[in-house]
Each structure stands twice: as C-alpha cells, then as structure tokens.
User: What shape does this take?
Amino acid sequence: MLDPQYKEIRDMAAKFSDSEVAPIAAEIDHKGKIPESLVAKLAENGFMGIFIPEEYGGSGMDYMSYSIIVEELSRSCASTGVLVSAHSSLASWPIIHYGTEDQKKKYLPKLASGEWIGCFCLSEPNAGSDAASLTTYAEDRGDHWEINGTKNWITNGKEAKLAIVFAKTRKTEDHKGMSCFIVETSTPGFQVMKEEDKLGIKGSSTTQIVLEKVKIPKENLLGKMEKGFSIGLATLDGGRIGIASQALGIGEAAFRYARKYATERVQFGKPISDLQAIQFVIADMSTKLAASRLLIASASWKKDNGESYGKEAAQAKVFASEAAMWITTKAIQVLGGNGYTKEFPCERYFRDAKITEIYEGTSEVQRLVIAANEFKEVR
Assistant: This one.
C-alpha cells in the first residue's frame, strides 16, 4: 500500500507515460531515437531533475519516487525509462552527493532543466565487470587535467552534454589511484566514435567514446583524489534500483498485454484465459511482479533513510531483471505466432528486457555482491 504522496506520484507518472510516451514507443524503437520534444516534456514534468534539490532547479524527490517514475516510463518505453534513469542516478546523483557548491550551481540547473543530458563513463573495452582494471589516465598538467582513454557502452553518449568520467590519476594495477571528473562533452578531444546497433532499447543511444588529450579545469575533479572507485560503486548501487525499476516496468507491460490478449483470444470455442495452463502463467507473472516491486521498495526505502542498501539494490536488480526476462518470454508464448511479430509489442518488451540482466552489473555480479554481504554478516 503506497503512502498518499507516492500514489500521487505514480498516478502522475502513469498518466504522462500513457498519454505522451506510449503512443510513440513503437516509433522510438523503429527509428532508434527519442524525440527532443519528448525530452522537453520530461523536463517540464520534473523527470529530468527527479532528486536534484529544488534550490538548483530540480524536483527534490527521493529514491522511492525515482523508482516509481522510472517504472511507469519504462512500462511504455524502456528506452525513455533508461534515459531518465542514467541521467538521474549516474550523472546527476554523483554531483549532488560529491560535488562542490560551485559544481552544483554550475551543472545541476542545466541537468534539471533537460538543457543538458548526462552520461556515466566507467566501462572500457577491457574493463567491464572488472572496473578496477581501467586504463584511462588523467595527467596533472599544472593548471589543468589532461585525460586520455576509451570508454565503452555509454548510455546517453550521443546526446550527453556532460559526462562523469573515471580515470586513473596514479598508475596502479588495482582500483587504487582512480579518480572521478566532470567533463563537458564539447571539450576538444571528446569524441563519440560509434553508436552501437543493439538488440533492444534501440531508442537509447549506447556509444563508444574516445578521450584524446581532453583538457579540463582542475576544479572539475569530482570528490576527493583517488576516491573514484568508491564514488563509482556508490553511484552504481543507486543506479541498480533504477534498472530494477526499468525491468519491472517492462515486465508489467508484457503482463498486462498478455493478460488482456488471453481474455480476447478464442480457441476451441472459449477464451484461452479459461485454460489452466494460461492461468498458471498469468499467476506466476503477477507474483514475480509483486515480489520485484517489494524488493525495489525495500532498497529505495533503505537508501532514502540512510541505511546500507547495496545488498538490497543487488537483490532487486537480479530478481526484477530475471523476472522481466521470464515474463516477456512467456508473454510471447501466450500470444503464440502473433507474439513473434512486430505488429504486437511483446517482441519489443522481450528485446528490451534482456539488457536489464547485463548493464549496471550483470546478474552474476549481483549474486557476488549479495553473497559477499551475506558472508560479511557471519564473519
């Protein structure tokens, strides 16, 4: 049972999603682009500055609100959901939490208004799950930093005006020596080299970025020197709540479509919803969605109340993403041959669901995080 304030947020986000996002979701998938007009509407409704404080032009909401909004947007279009998720939790949150007052005043209003979209540059060609092995290097040139390196799988990379970039400031073989920087993408040497042609979330740009002698001001160091690894991990913990919410939205969309289809599709003289085999599938879908929603709420509540939430965020992400993959697979099965065609949306839900098991930490990494927390409690 949602508190009244969260019910109001869900109703508002659901109305926006149904009226502004759902009608163009198939077009976004087909064209591989989210219209700028939709980004403007997202900003007008406060979705680009979800937890940016009001004093910097944001909505000043909490993570529970964020998870609800990302879920509702993703229910109509997973690409739109992840644009908001990555912009909010991966680009805006580190500045809110680790930025200086000057950094906040300079960048947060632009992010909140949607004038600038943000991205998060951690992964590299040879540093995915093993983020500590990155080779991007930032050299102190006296009055500025010079960054050189390559970043892979950058969500919002094509549209971003601001990037949170992780680089070594001291050459080490482990995570020590990693620092974090705010980089304006208009800086000479910051180049989008290619945009990935993906299976799903096709409206969300995913790019490779090369930084070649990128000069940034000394004051654009985010947080303390050589604390980049801890900043990255803390940021990803919160981001996993967003991806779990995206997965939940995708699963909810597939469930609703399959349930409605089952009541309308007649075989052997009766709706297939009368068949026990279909009823069991719908029952399992509903149960997995309910469990996902509770896990996400638990992680969000803990984060909002200043409690340790890394394990809960990992649990929410691994469960919700695998549930979404299962639900979308079964939804196609309920639709039969129709489910395999682009005339019906379930094949899009299926394609979109898969990435939630991979980015911001694979399911395998989530299980490592959960296990490490469990064993820590008994040692």
